[in-house]
Amino acid sequence: MASMQGARVLVASNRGPVSYTVEEDGSLRTGRGGGGLVSGLSAIGPDAGSLWVCSALSDGDREAVRRGVGEDGVRMLDIPADVHADAYNGIANSVLWFVHHMLYQTPVEPVFDAEFRRQWASYEAYNRAFAEALAEEAAQRAAVLVQDYHLTLVPGLLRELRPDLHIGHFSHTPWAPPEYFGMLPDDIAGQVLRGMLGADRLGFLTHRWADAFTACCERFVGGLGDTRIGVHGLGADADFLRGRAREADVEERLLTLREEIGTAPDGTARRTVVRVDRTELSKNIVRGLLAYRQLLEDRPEWRERVVHLAFAYPSRQDLAVYREYTAEVRRVAEEINERYGTPGWRPVVLHVRDDFARSLAAYRLADVALVNPIRDGMNLVAKEIPILAEGGCALVLSREAGAHEELGEDAITVNPYDVVATARALHEALTTGPAERTEGAKRLTAAATALPPQKWFLDQLNALREES
Ligand code: G6P
User: Fold this and answer.
1) What's the superkingdom here (predicted)?
2) How do the domains of the chain map onto residue ranges?
3) Beta carbon of 258 within 6 Å of any ligand 1 atom
4) If you measure from the C-alpha of residue 258 to the centroid of ligand 1, how many angstroms do you get, rounded to a whole number?
């Protein structure tokens, strides 16, 4: 809880650690988020005077702010819904996310028109609201850790308001190379980079993304100036995962999944290929399904003997392109089941309702983990599955995932666009022997847990305090 003198460590992010839903009887239900940042911040302890500034995202959140309901150590900003929608859906998720993940179909998009300029003004207002709240809440020389592409302008704006603060910014996404970043209008590109450079220190998940940012600064704003760059490859929280995966609800899901997987006609256990993602364009779920279909086509010996557990949880459904992608994922999964399925075998078990306990149950059952994004800041699923897979597992991993920098040596690497090669990689992964799989998973686990969230957070905090 922030004291009267102000908070000494502040985190700012669009999505906060709590969310609220209005129940039918009018009461508010509180939901708590997990994730690296939540466990990271917990490392500084309850007396550290920490404050998490985040945005109200739903009607429930806005209602909570209005009623003065909240959590100690969290301040939710009630930014007008239309301003937030323009900033979050319009700029952050449709422009900046697309730029950094290189998702545009460039012959027809992006189009930076008057509507974009209008939305940009909302993005500025939304960033300003964060900067003002942080300036108001922070103690003298406090450390402020700003998160992600939603808040690129905050460091610069906050620096003007409070030159005494230690300001850090961390990017959880990739950073686009200059040729792609340069699609942004010149003034906007400059504003984003200068906004970020208002920080004392910028953090990235891999060297590749840090180098791309540096190259953008050299190309568009004459270099980094006094801002320093750090690379902190967030790892998985093994203790939390192992504990959570033993709870009763996970055991229950395990039984249901085993039924859905079934047994091969010769009585042996079926192999599993597991993927768990938000239904996100960058995750490449459709090509993953096409690769699995190719495997069944090229290697008929796997028919009846393997099941693909594909969990694709809804994400950013306000955006039409995400809704269409979700529909395409369903269509391709159904098509595979119709073409290859038999009365006793459903080749793809697709689940689209978010259920963390079921994800953990699937991790425990994984023989093969499929993580094939076309571009990804890190990808924690690639780190989490090997920790929990009970018989060890082989990892098919895209070379475009940040996690590849750390796990590449012990994974089967794929070019995410190459469906035929991904099918071959799945075959290779499925034929990995049990001893090799167990050894592989051990090495993957060691690499995946090298920088647990608590240390990841403290390293950044200490570097920020010492270096500025
Ligand atoms: C990525 C971003 C996060 C974001 C998360 C979920 O991991 O780096 O900032 O919170 O996706 O996306 P959402 O739009 O649902 O917050």
Assistant:
1) Bacteria
2) 7-234+453-467, 238-448
3) no
4) 31
